Amino acid sequence: MTPSKVATVEELSFRPIVESDIALVEEWLQDAESKRRLGGMIPFRPCFEYQQSKPGYHKWIVYHADTPVALTGFEIQEDGSAAVVLLVSPRRRGRGYGSCVLKALASVPEAQKVTTFVGLVEADHEVAIRCLEAAGYTEEGPDPEDPGFTRYVLTRKDYPTRPSSRRQGRRG
User: Fold this and answer.
1) d(C-alpha 139, C-alpha 128), whole Å
2) Which of 21, 91, 114, 151 has its CA 20 to 30 A from that of 80?
3) Contacts 24+ apart (CB under 8 A), 124-129
4) What is the C-alpha separation between 9 and 64, in angstroms, rounded?
5) Which superfamily does 9-160 belong to?
6) pTM for this one?
């Protein structure tokens, strides 16, 4: 079933990424904007294998009904912060999925240890900035480790109240 409307947070489900998802993610990364912004994830297999071997990395394919709409995840740092990644399917962009996924991400069980979600975005990436802001993130300023990026944060006290995201079993 292909969703005709944007999902609500409650309608999204998160499934941990598995090896059979690599082809799907690589297809999404072939989009020109994805290549420009996330080229370091191409090819995706080495990224997947590295992250699968490290505790603290969590990645999911996000579904609306039976349709995969995004890849998201985070890496939990020693200080309790988590660097967030989000890749919305090119066919689903511009429909509000990105901000909806980011809102739901704060409710996954693995997020309970996270004190602050951090999104790093290039200053000219207006779509990502609007997405982060719509999800409740606030601008913190230039990233001290990479001044070419701006930090957007969502702290535990700012998490919107919502039910936990549904989880699906493994596919693939």
Assistant:
1) 12
2) 21
3) 125/37, 127/93, 127/98, 128/37, 128/98
4) 9
5) Gcn5-related N-acetyltransferase (GNAT) (3.40.630.30)
6) 0.82
State the pLDDT at residue 63.
94
Q: Which amino acid, 105?
A: L
Residue 41 and residue 28 in contact, taking contact as beta carbons nearer than 8 Å: no
pLDDT attached to residue 172: 43
Q: For the chain, which ranges sit under pLDDT 50?
A: 1-4, 161-172
Cα–Cα dist 156/51, whole Å: 24
The C-alpha atoms of residue 107 and residue 41 are separated, in whole angstroms, by: 25
Beta-strand relationship, 138-142 and 149-155 = antiparallel
Predicted confidence at residue 30, as pLDDT, reads 80
d(CA 164, CA 70): 18
Query: Tokens 């309970």 belong to which residue?
Result: 112
Tens of pLDDT, residues 9-35: 888 999 999 999 988 888 888 877 776
How far CA 114 is from CA of 82, 83, 131, 152, in Å, comes to 6, 10, 20, 15
Q: Where are the domains of the chain?
A: 9-160
